[in-house]
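Worked Example 4.2. Consider the chain below.
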Amino acid sequence: MDKYFRMKKISAVVFLLASASQTFAQSGTNSPYSQFGLGTLVEQTSGFNRGMNGLGLGFRERNQVNFLNPASYSGLDSLSFIFDAGASLQMTHFSENGMKKNANNANFDYIVGAFRAAKNVGVSFGLIPLTSVGYNYSNTSTIGVSSSAVTTSTNTYNGEGGLRQAYLGVGWQPLKGLSVGANISYLWGSYEKSVVNSYNDASIKTLSQYYTADIRSYKFDLGLQYTAKVSKKDWLTIGATFSPGHGIGGNPELNIISTNNQTGVADTLSYNKGLSYSLPTSFGIGFSWNRNNRLKFGVDYTQQRWSSVEAPLYVVTNNVGAYEMKGNQFNDRHKVTVGADYCPQENGRNFFKRMHYRGGVSYTTPYVKVNGVDGPKEISASLGFGMPIINSYNNRSMLNVSVQWVNSSATSLIKENVFRINIGLTFNERWFMKWKVE
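Applying the procedure from the previous section yields the following structure tokens:
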């Protein structure tokens, strides 16, 4: 009977993973900055990390999936199968030169699982987003005035898509206090972007640029953690991660269509030779201080070396256009996060003392450039809590809820204020406990 119920649970997990792969095809952003590079970089965090604004490189959680550092899997509870899924609702306020606009998004963010496979060995798997593309805006300008009419030009920008990854990871503790881990991911996704230049005068041709790419590749992440007992009630964990950069292909293509609005005749010019996208080399380092399993404080620093990455770019020289690989389009991305998790009494009887109270702040530099100028820097903060779910057969599952504010701003560019509500549900089942019948 027990085996039957386990098979039903495994089947449910597989079904949800398949369903989530379709859901991730939807865009989770409205930002015009997602038109650059591979799109807006999605913070790859689960519910408990988000309460601390994405902190986690030095965290070893026995009852949460911390895929920020695969070395943490070795610390999973030996009796548990953990299943975690999360969604978010965000409200974005845009402002530029006195103009304001609001946009809303709801998104299914991630779905992951983890279990302890053997002594000192943990395994994790799941679907998580990597980048998101989603924008639609236009601007109109006057290009000519005559006695009978005003001629205007309108540029319309539209894009959607993004990259997702399905990962399988393992963490191993070969020596007391020292853990290593790795995630291997299948990376896939596509985007469609367009720029349409049209006029209110039908005698002027409409010029349309359509950019497409379809990516199928891999991603590899390594993790390391070392934990030392500093005193009777204090532990210090130092974590590090590394991800090698490499080409991911994508067959980027550009089609430029010139349309005569009076005759309906269109001429198409295509560029699709020898182009590809790449991921940057990335690394991170962080630590957490654990005070008697009540207060956990940590700091993370990550860097993505985008400045060395080339990407396709359409350039016009002497009235001759070319879609070719160009460097100097991106900056190295740096992020610093400080956060904490406080639980007064994790195994106590008082409900509120068993809750986790979390908070964190971050500062992030941009990886994109906008017309040769650095994109917006980010300042963000979050507050959250983890609420235990207690019933007659399970007191180990948890509801993670957090609110996050992200401010993106740069001189003479669009400013964004994002208010996000994150909800994550962690199911923690006792799958591997041996029952004794008397």
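Residues 61 and 75 are 6 Å apart (CA to CA). DSSP finds two helices and 23 strands in the chain. Compare this with Example 4.1 before moving on.
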